[in-house]
């Protein structure tokens, strides 16, 4: 086990280095400059020279690459070019907790409601409730979250005025974005649970339990659902990764001050330190998440050996 | 089984209810008689360091936290602010400013002449790498210092007393008192800045001298300004508080406005036509011009008659009325309205329309030009613009007009704005969308762009007479003579037609009817000093 973890750890380092290097190469391959302004104002030549010197952009690329590798190792990417009073670490420190909170609530809601919907569908197999649950699930998968988000805002914030449109100031501000984000994953989980529940419910040991006269609640929760949950664990890791990284559009629509916007904005404004910082940070988070899923999976199902 | 089902249903429903109820209680409660304005800044300010800030995200808020020697009044004229009065030498090159005795920083320090000297040197220091530094070049010795060719002491801004500031200009220019209302010339509490070079990064350490003070600043999320009681003119300030959001999605901003989360909003593109028709949109002029640049180094635009033919074939009024539909003024000159010459006549009114839409003349000019250049058919022409639905609509309209009026097929190409800017500066485009927003309120700011080799001169045009006229105007002390030179320069520019103007920019916005007194300067930043909101 220890050997496996060490091996995986070294692989992770290698992966991060490859991602970091690719990001560096791609970033410098796209034309444009961090000192172009979107509002048509032109910065004069002296200022651009001064700015380039300030951010080491006047150095040859190999030297910049070394500076960059050093910044990864020391976790110090320096100040953002677009917001020079903030370091990249500041931006991550402000944005990540918000994205994390949104992502966690989304996961919790998606898992609970997904399991509930899946179990109901399986128990009422081929009944009206099953069709309804599956219709909801198919809709959830096929409606993109930004369309759902816009509809939710229009209905619950603008028309009914139950909830605020946007920003991030408390529980009421979380409801709509969490629903918008959770619906897709919820649908995926519901479908998985439904099919694995159907499989499990036909097993002999369930029939034995029924014959023994156990209460239906006990059968479903203690015997059936437990085994039906396995495939869900597999997808939750990937879903968590998707939710943590895929929040950009939702964060933008609901004006949530999370990390998502730095991905896109930093590329638009060629904010090199932020592009590099956020990419390396997120790839690290994802790789660690996937690593944990592997470990947990092996622990849940002893048939899978970690080598 | 039924029991089980109802339990799950109960739990899910109660979860939903908890969410919904917490929603109701968390709604902002009615204000307690305080006058609070809720605005959207669109994004996190780039920086509140007045020496470095050079975009509206930073300068719209900063304009209300700090104050320079002068401040623009409601009619866009500079009025005494930190400076109570000033005298000008005979040659109009030396200004002596007398700073108010009651001018104070929010920490209680008096505002002194030294604070200005410190701030202006920061602006010009090459290490600051300020994009706004060029605004200070009007001061003697400033350009040399900024380019690393002269000492800081060579910048002729000196404190001759604690409240007396003397500025020597390299050339007498009547717009100087207007220019110094720009945030680049705001003072900085030197005592604070020397102790903490990052004093402007957080609300706790920020020290201002403007109508409002920075009370809280959650980076990338929100800011709160409250009325600054130590401000010398605080009796004119009616608002108690300004809450700033940072929402950069125009649709979300609009919906927040609709539901009362904001008092003002921009106009989202999809709803623009509808909202303008409803009459709810307010419009303020903006000093700047949308134009089409014709690269004189690329065929067929080396020929002046072909350039003119293209300009005359485009109906700017049709573009503003039927494509933009945002009450913009069609442009037939480059300098936007709003600049008065010494006889109090508007620059634009004096020079008037320098050409007009004339498809018949356009056709004959094209014929003539093609003969001169020896073309049987025109080379392939591409009109390039930065990716944006509005740019696309305008360029498609131009494409259609050129086809209809000249029979010329023009291809369209679009590019991400950052790539576009780099390519345009490098003179790579044949025909391209150009835009200019004024940095300071004088026609010379518009005209200097097209001097030989200027970065904005994407048409790679070069004209000795034009260079001479504009250089002379930027050095001329006699304002009448200066305006005459600028009038001639603009006529020459439009006569040579390396570009054709399309329309003048404006600022369109929606405003809560309870709010009044916000001033949108054509050149300058949002002014909230006189804003009021009735509860």
Automatic annotation (TrEMBL), chain A:
Transmembrane portions of the chain: 12-30, 102-123, 130-153, 173-193, 228-250, 280-300
Record's subcellular location: Cell membrane
Gene3D superfamilies (alphabetical): MetI-like
Coiled-coil segments: none
Alphabetic keyword roster: Cell membrane, Membrane, Transmembrane, Transmembrane helix, Transport
Topology term for the membrane: Multi-pass membrane protein
Protein name: ABC transporter permease
